[in-house]
Amino acid sequence: MKTYSLEEMKDKHIGKQGTPNRDAYENELRLEILGQTIKEIRQERNLTQEQLGVLVGVKKAQISKIENSFTDARFDTILKVFKALNAKINFNVELLNQKMAID
How far apart are CA 37 and CA 51, in angstroms? Predict the structure, then answer.
């Protein structure tokens, strides 16, 4: 019986890296991880979604949507959430080896 790596399975069923389907999958996965992280920190801080919403200046429903990856929240909202949670956040930027077309 042949075994396949996770990367091979993703390539076969979702698409190879750099394809639109794979990019969409990877972005959705990142949002899900971000939402789960926010939820875990909120719970560690003993805050309800409503209480966090008050601290951030949004409604409870917005916090729920962020935690459950149902929305593409604005970047500044995400930063406010982490600030309200008293959590440090780091972002990594990766430059791709692609030539830029300048017209």
Answer: 17
